[in-house]
Structures are given as structure tokens and as C-alpha cells.
Amino acid sequence: MKERPSLLTFFLLAILAGAPAMLGTWIGGFAFNPFLAVLFLSLGAGAILQVIVEVGKMLVNDSRGMGETAVSWLNFAGLTAGILIMYLTAFLVKF
Fold it and tell me: Which of 1, 29, 68, 73 has the smallest number of Cβ neighbours within 10 A?
């Protein structure tokens, strides 16, 4: 029987996954040197891409284990909700 991870474990994994993306994007956005801006923004984009790849693999493996297809309405709804939240929070940014 598998043991359920604690809430602290999820929190630490979220920090591990999100910290490089947040730091890279933040430092890259404030860098005055074009080379450093590209370097740190690339770090942030690469971290985001890595999270997308890993979550995608996890969804495919879980769906195979349950004998279902990886493309389901629940996965589609989650993706749509994430894009909608990202779009709506973009309105909070003032230039």
C-alpha cells in the first residue's frame, strides 16, 4: 500500500519546481545587461518547460496505469483553468 505524501512534501516540491523559474524571470527582467537578461530569462523559461514536461509524463503514466486515455475532460479542464488564471492575473500587472 502506498503512503500518502504530507502537505509539507507538496509545498517543498512546489518550491523546488517554481523557485528557478521565479528567480530566473525576476532577475532577467531587472538585468541591465542584455547578456544577463537573456541568460536569466532563459533559465526561467527552461525551468517552466521542464515542469511542463515532467507533469505531462506523470499524466501519461498515471492514465496508462488506470487503463484510460491521457486526454480526458478533467485534464482539459485543468489546462483551460490554468491558462485562464494566467490570462486573468496578467491584468493585475501595471506598466
Answer: 1
Measured CA to CA, the distance from residue 59 to residue 3 in angstroms comes to 19
Number of structural domains found in the chain = 1
Q: What is the DSSP string of 37-78?
A: HHHHHHHHHHHHHHHHHHHHHHHHHHHHHHT--S--HHHHHH
Provide the domain limits for residue 54: 7-90
52 in any annotated domain: yes
**Closest C-alpha among 54, 60, 42 to residue 16:** 54
Average pLDDT, stretch 54-67?
84
- Whole-number Cα distances in Å, 44 to 17, 19, 30, 95: 11, 9, 13, 21
Is the pLDDT at 58 greater than 60? The verdict is yes
Which pLDDT score is estimated for 72? 83
pTM equals 0.58
